[in-house]
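User: Earlier you gave me the apo prediction for this protein. Now I'd like the version with pyridoxal-5'-phosphate bound, so I can compare the two side by side. Same sequence as before, with the ligand SMILES added.
Assistant: Got it. Here's the input I'm using:
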Amino acid sequence: MSTPKYLEIASTINTMIDSGEYPKGSKLPPHRSLANDLGTTPATVAKAYNFLSEQGRIESFIGRGSFVSHDKALDQVIYSEAANKEINFSILQPCFDAEHLQLLDSHIQTACHSPDKVLLHSYAESSGIWQHREAGLEWSEHFGLEAKSADEILLANGAQHALSGLIQLYTKPGDLIAVEAQTYPGILSILNFLGRRVVGISMDDKGMIPKALNETCIGDCPKMVIIVPSHQNPTGISMPKTRREEIANVIEKHSIWLLEDDIYGFLNQDVISPLTNLVPHLGFYVSSLSKAISPGLRSAYIKAPKAEARHLANFIRASIWLAPPLVFAAASSLIKSGDAFRLATRQRNIANKRQSIAQELLPSSGAFKNTGSYHIWLTLPDDWSSEEFALAAKEHKLLVSSASYFNATAEPLNAIRLSVMSESNEKRYKHGLKELSLLLEQKQYKHIHF
Ligand SMILES: Cc1ncc(COP(=O)(O)O)c(C=O)c1O
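And here is the structure of the complex with pyridoxal-5'-phosphate:
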C-alpha cells in the first residue's frame, strides 16, 4: 500500500525542519502555492499541516499562516549565549565598556549600602516603593512623557514583563491585537503564547499608517494596538509628531487600548511627545532601562491611565508580588544622580558612530539610512532569501536575525536585522561587517523548495 500523499508531504517538511532548512519560527508556504508546486490539492496540504500541527511541529494562526513551532523562536532571533568565536549581530543591548560597567557597579554598591536596608528587603507595597516610582517618573518625563504624579507609575521586571502583563490584563484569548506589520518578535511571541489573534498593520517610512489602522478598526475592531514609536524594532523608523497625532485620533475614535513600547525613546535626538500624552485615558506607556543602561537590571516603568493604576498594581501583586526593591534602588540611584541620562547619551553616540561605520563597510546594494538606532534593517539582494542568508551567515560565524521572525503579515520579506551594538569590541564589529559584505555580494541561486 502506498503512503498517503499528505503523509509524504508532512514527512518531507519534518526532514526540512530537522535539517534546518525551515528554521524554528519560519513560515511555511501557503496551502495553495505548495499544492501548485506539488501538483496536489490545497486540501491535501492542509491535511499535512494539520498532522504536523497535532505533532506540535508547526503552529497555524488564522490570517498569518503556519510556522515551525514557535516555542524556541526567540532563541533563533537573539543568540544571547553566542560563543566568542561567533560575531554577534543579533542582540540589541548597550555596548558595554569598562566605564559603563564601573558606573553600574558603583550604583549597585550604593543600593547595597542604603540606610533603608530593611525596607529594601521587605515586602513593599505592590506598586513599588514611592521613591522608585518617582525615579521612574523622572526617567520617563525626561523623554517626553506627561504624567500627573508617581501615582500613575508602576514597576515591572523589564519591558517584556510589562508587555505580557498588560496584554493578559486588558485582552482575552481570541481577541484581535493590532501590531506594526513588522514588529519585535517578543511581542509576537507573547501574543502566540496567550492565544491572541494578530493583525499586522501596514507601515510606510513614518511608521504605522493611520488609514490602515482605521480600516482594521472598522472591519474587525482590535482590542488593543501595540506600537514601538521610536527607532522601531526592526525597521528603525521613528514616528514623527504629526503621524503620532493621526494614530492617536484613530485610537480615540475607536476607543481601543494603546500599548506604547517606547524602549528606544532615549535614542531620539530631540524629544518627540509620546502617543500616550494624546490619549492618556487609553494609553499605557512602557519605558525600560534595558537598552540605555543594562538589560540585566530588569527595570521597566509603566505609566497607566489614572483610572487603571490601582487595578494594574493589584495584577502585579497577584503575578510577582512586586518588582525587586533592591534592583530598583540601584536603578533609582542611577536616575537621581543623572548618571542614567549620561549613559543613555553615551550609548546614543555609540549607536550613531556604529551606524556610520556600517554605511562605509556594507555594500551599496543594501543601502540604508543612518537612523541612529541600535539596529539596521537591511534589504537583501534578490538572489538571497532572508532565512538562507541567516543560515549562510551562521556558517560563516556571523549571527544575524532573519526577517521572518519580525513579520506579522503574510507578505514575504527579504531582509535581515543587524544589531550594531552587540559586539562591544569595535575591531570585531568592523571585521564582522567586512565578512557580511563579502557574503552579501556572493550570488545565491539555491532556494528552499521541495
Ligand atoms: C521593542 C522592544 N520591546 C521590549 C524589549 C524587551 O525589553 P526588556 O529587556 O526591558 O524586557 C525589547 C528587547 O529587545 C524590544 O526591542
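For your comparison, keep in mind: The longest strand covers residues 283-288.
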